[in-house]
């Protein structure tokens, strides 16, 4: 279906008559047109999040109501609009979404009636789970990982050991939800899913930036940690290596569909000697002995941590 449907026009006219500018903008951003929400409507809604006299609960509820329809196009565009506002709107919106007990309940969504309905419904279910996890991460960590200060004096690089070990698994869970979107390049077939994928691509870069910097900080602290902290840190690091592989696969899809990532990310595999040093140190704390790895080698590896970090650091 192309163009605004009769339902879209009637809904927009109704909101015009009732004087609800927010509802009208949400309606226009989530029409039945198989295309991305229009910039002018997204810009207006971003502006609304910055206005103190605008009810954030009303704005959020209006978006959530649009996901209660049966049309994959409307629901997908409501998710995209919400994601866009999470990224570029006032933090008040994210705070409100994170405070809700439930956000999107679309695990069973299926549009059987429309062209592409079955395929797109799969991605709607995955996308909604990611947005739920994005809000939950904010609720647990009180920070948006895509917006935190980066660099040597950034949040993740200066975080203490205890908080770091609690925070990194939250980042891992959010990144997992994002990577579970899992499209093939031949499934990015319309302007709606393409827009969602671009937003996810941008989030993946920013989340990984925080994740990467946190892991660098953790590795730098590793040899001074208590035994239980070392065990947790080692598992976090092993998970991190696995996520790097999954992220590489996700970025390959972006490359195939023409997204230029040259200015964003350069992934490089960590040297195996680094993992060996971490395992050897934990074994020594447990009174075990792995294959010989001298103390001298252990400390020679510490500069490699910084080098490794710079290799995969994001521009």
UniProtKB/TrEMBL annotation:
ENTH domain mapped to chain residues: 14-145
Subcellular location as annotated: Cell membrane; Cytoplasmic vesicle, Clathrin-coated vesicle; Golgi apparatus; Membrane, Clathrin-coated pit
InterPro entries, alphabetized: ANTH_dom, ANTH_dom_sf, AP180-like, ENTH, ENTH_VHS
A GO term from the CC aspect: clathrin-coated vesicle
Keywords: Acetylation, Cell membrane, Coated pit, Cytoplasmic vesicle, Endocytosis, Golgi apparatus, Isopeptide bond, Membrane, Nucleus, Phosphoprotein, Ubl conjugation
SUPFAM superfamilies reported in the protein's UniProt record: ENTH/VHS domain (SSF48464), GAT-like domain (SSF89009)
GO molecular function: 1-phosphatidylinositol binding; clathrin heavy chain binding; phosphatidylinositol-4,5-bisphosphate binding; SNARE binding
One of the protein's GO biological processes: synaptic vesicle budding from presynaptic endocytic zone membrane
Family: Belongs to the PICALM/SNAP91 family.
PANTHER family: CLATHRIN ASSEMBLY PROTEIN (PTHR22951), ENTH DOMAIN-CONTAINING PROTEIN (PTHR22951:SF11)
Subunit structure: Binds to clathrin; involves primarily the C-terminal sequences, but the full-length protein is required for full binding capacity. Binds phosphatidylinositol 4,5- bisphosphate. Interacts with PIMREG; this interaction may change the subcellular location into the nucleus. Interacts with AP2A1 (via its alpha-appendage domain). Interacts (via N-terminus) with VAMP2; VAMP3; VAMP7 and VAMP8 (Via N-terminus). Interacts with LC3/MAP1LC3A.
Function: Cytoplasmic adapter protein that plays a critical role in clathrin-mediated endocytosis which is important in processes such as internalization of cell receptors, synaptic transmission or removal of apoptotic cells. Recruits AP-2 and attaches clathrin triskelions to the cytoplasmic side of plasma membrane leading to clathrin-coated vesicles (CCVs) assembly. Furthermore, regulates clathrin-coated vesicle size and maturation by directly sensing and driving membrane curvature.
Protein name in UniProt: Phosphatidylinositol-binding clathrin assembly protein
Lineage of producing organism: Eukaryota, Metazoa, Chordata, Craniata, Vertebrata
């Amino acid at each position: 279906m192309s163009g605004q449907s009769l339902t879209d026009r009637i809904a927009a006219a109704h909101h015009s008559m009732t004087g609800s500018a927010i509802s009208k903008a949400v309606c226009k951003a989530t029409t039945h047109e198989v295309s991305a929400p229009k910039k002018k409507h997204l810009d207006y809604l971003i502006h609304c999040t910055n206005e103190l006299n605008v009810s954030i609960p009303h704005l959020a509820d209006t978006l959530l109501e649009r996901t209660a329809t049966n049309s994959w196009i409307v629901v997908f565009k409501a998710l995209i609009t919400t994601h866009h506002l999470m990224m570029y709107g006032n933090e008040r919106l994210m705070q409100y979404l994170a405070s809700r007990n439930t956000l999107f309940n679309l695990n069973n969504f299926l549009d059987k009636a429309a062209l592409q309905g079955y395929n797109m419904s799969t991605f709607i279910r995955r996308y909604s789970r990611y947005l739920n996890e994005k809000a939950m991460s904010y609720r647990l960590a009180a920070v948006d990982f895509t917006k935190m200060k980066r660099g040597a004096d950034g949040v993740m690089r200066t975080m203490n050991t205890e908080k770091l070990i609690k925070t990194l698994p939250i980042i891992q869970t959010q990144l997992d939800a994002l990577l579970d979107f899992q499209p093939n390049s031949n499934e990015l077939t319309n302007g709606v899913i393409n827009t969602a994928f671009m937003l996810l691509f941008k989030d993946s870069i920013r989340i990984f930036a925080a994740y990467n910097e946190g892991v660098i900080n953790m590795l730098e602290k590793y040899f001074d940690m208590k035994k239980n902290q070392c065990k947790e840190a080692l598992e976090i690091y092993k998970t991190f290596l696995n996520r790097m592989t999954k992220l590489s696969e996700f970025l390959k899809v972006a490359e195939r569909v023409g997204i230029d990532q040259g200015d964003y990310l350069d992934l490089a595999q960590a040297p195996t000697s680094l993992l060996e040093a971490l395992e050897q140190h934990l074994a020594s704390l447990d009174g075990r002995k792995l294959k010989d790895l001298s103390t001298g080698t252990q400390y020679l590896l510490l500069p490699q941590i910084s080098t490794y970090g710079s290799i995969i650091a994001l521009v």
